């Protein structure tokens, strides 16, 4: 375009020099110079200044314990559909907004902040374990505490179990909110009973999980729930160094007319100020403006704060880390380096665990635990496969069943597998073509069987290096 020549003509010239190029291909400088000379076009090589990143990474090193101060918890609400996740979030936001504060309307910026007894709590706006785990599959660990909503008139349902397993796989503590207690047919004791059957033992029953009866409709119990969030946060001793270049995670990003790229982030540590140069994966820029969850412009933010950032060149991926860099040149340089790594990675995609390469990874000491997700058509098969697989653990590798349930293999299973480097075993169930496609994208190995013995046999063979190659 710049030299105003027909691409086919340029490709022909390249072919004459023995280079079989396509229209999308980069060519080396020397080759470009030959073609340029042919057209009488002067060509200049742009010098890319090497930047010593060691100094930049030094800035991102672990913080000295003496620099750490308390930070607010980041909470995700999870649970089965229609159990009241959205209602609960809305009710909490309303109680948390000081009376008289500009209408109290929260913007949707991916996360919102509330104050309870002068302490801040950050809530992720998108409830559900799917969002939680897809962020985790991208390497982002933002959630400190999960609130598991279970409707008292409905009890533990399939997505309740998924939410429990997704939080457990991430090592995130659960607080149970037994919701809808205003309903006449509410039965909180049944919820407690069913939870204990799923390994979630509440305090009242001698376990360590806090359960709070609430009603998103009447507001009953919400104060206690927030109290408990702060209590668990206290126990977790959440801390961050506020006096360092900011590091955060992108939770959402989009293009907004008149503003350009807008990224919602949660800052995890350090400070982020308007004017700071930042890099997020393969994109970078200078922070033009910061907006808080009330839509107000802010100048500077600290740890555990959610904001929208204007000023990135392109839309970053959700789950991408965002870093403040010493200057814009460095931000651009890191983004370019990331782009190269990204391209290399997408060339050899299969990053997950497969039964085929399991044995070599065990031998190399790369894995010590084999994470497995089991899906089957009936409960009896789930249990039978689970028990048999657990028995395969040996000194070198431990079998870990991170999720086992009745039902088809879902996108949520694939995301969990991707986030936890797990394989999926399906018995008399299959993934839909969408799910299969996602699994291929994420490099997740799905194995489906019709005979239990075959499933057990394959895993055992893979663990001992005796698996026959399939295709
Ligand atoms: P989500 O799918 O988990 O986000 O559930 P929603 O928040 O959309 O709630 C599902 C339905 O339950 C809606 O009709 C709500 O009005 C209702 N609901 C939610 N919480 C309560 C509650 O505490 N009491 C009663 N009676 N209804 C509730």
Automatic annotation (TrEMBL):
GTP binds at residues 79-86, 125-129, 179-182. Residues 70-239 form the Tr-type G domain. It is found in: Cytoplasm. Residues 73-221 are annotated as: G-domain. One of the essential components for the initiation of protein synthesis. Protects formylmethionyl-tRNA from spontaneous hydrolysis and promotes its binding to the 30S ribosomal subunits. Also involved in the hydrolysis of GTP during the formation of the 70S ribosomal complex. Belongs to the TRAFAC class translation factor GTPase superfamily. Classic translation factor GTPase family. IF-2 subfamily. This is Translation initiation factor IF-2. The lineage of its organism: Bacteria, Bacillati, Bacillota, Clostridia, Eubacteriales.
């Amino acid at each position: 375009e710049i030299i105003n020549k027909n691409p086919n003509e340029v490709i022909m010239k390249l072919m004459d020099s023995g280079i079989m190029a396509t229209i999308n291909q980069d060519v080396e400088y020397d080759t470009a110079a030959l073609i340029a000379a042919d057209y009488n076009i002067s060509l200049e090589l742009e010098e890319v200044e090497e930047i010593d990143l060691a100094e930049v990474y030094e800035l991102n090193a672990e913080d000295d314990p003496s620099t750490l101060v308390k930070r607010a918890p980041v909470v995700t609400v999870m649970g089965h559909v229609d159990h009241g996740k959205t209602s609960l979030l809305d009710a909490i936001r309303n109680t948390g907004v000081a009376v008289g504060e500009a209408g109290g309307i929260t913007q949707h910026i991916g996360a919102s902040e509330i104050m309870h007894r002068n302490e801040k709590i950050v809530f992720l706006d998108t409830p559900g374990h799917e969002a939680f785990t897809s962020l985790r599959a991208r390497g982002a660990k933002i959630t400190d505490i999960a609130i598991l909503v279970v409707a008292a008139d409905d009890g533990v349902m399939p997505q309740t179990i998924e939410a429990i397993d997704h939080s457990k796989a991430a090592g995130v503590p659960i607080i149970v909110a037994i919701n809808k207690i205003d309903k006449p047919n509410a039965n909180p004791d049944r919820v407690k009973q069913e939870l204990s059957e799923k390994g979630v033992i509440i305090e009242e029953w001698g376990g360590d999980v806090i359960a709070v009866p609430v009603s998103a409709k009447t507001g009953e119990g919400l104060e206690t729930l927030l109290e408990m969030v702060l209590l668990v946060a206290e126990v977790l001793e959440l801390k961050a160094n506020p006096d360092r270049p900011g590091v955060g995670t992108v939770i959402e990003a989009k293009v907004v007319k008149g503003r350009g790229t807008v990224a919602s982030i949660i800052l995890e540590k350090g400070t982020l100020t308007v004017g700071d140069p930042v890099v997020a994966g393969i994109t970078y820029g200078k922070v033009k403006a910061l907006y808080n969850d009330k839509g107000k412009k802010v100048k500077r933010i600290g740890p555990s704060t959610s904001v929208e950032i204007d000023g990135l060149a392109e839309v970053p991926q959700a789950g991408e880390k965002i870093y403040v860099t010493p200057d814009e040149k460095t931000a651009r340089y890191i983004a370019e380096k990331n782009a190269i790594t990204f391209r290399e990675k997408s060339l050899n995609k299969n990053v997950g665990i497969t039964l085929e390469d399991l044995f070599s990874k065990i031998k190399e000491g790369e894995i010590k635990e084999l994470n497995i997700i089991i899906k089957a058509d009936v409960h009896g098969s789930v249990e039978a496969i689970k028990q048999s697989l657990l028995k395969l653990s040996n000194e070198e590798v431990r079998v870990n069943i991170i999720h086992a349930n009745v039902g088809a293999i879902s996108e949520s299973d694939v995301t969990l597998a991707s986030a936890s480097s797990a394989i999926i075993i399906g018995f008399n169930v299959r993934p839909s073509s969408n799910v299969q496609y996602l699994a291929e994208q994420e490099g997740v190995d799905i194995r489906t069987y019709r005979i239990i013995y075959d499933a057990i046999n394959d895993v055992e063979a893979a663990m001992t290096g005796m698996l026959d190659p399939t295709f």
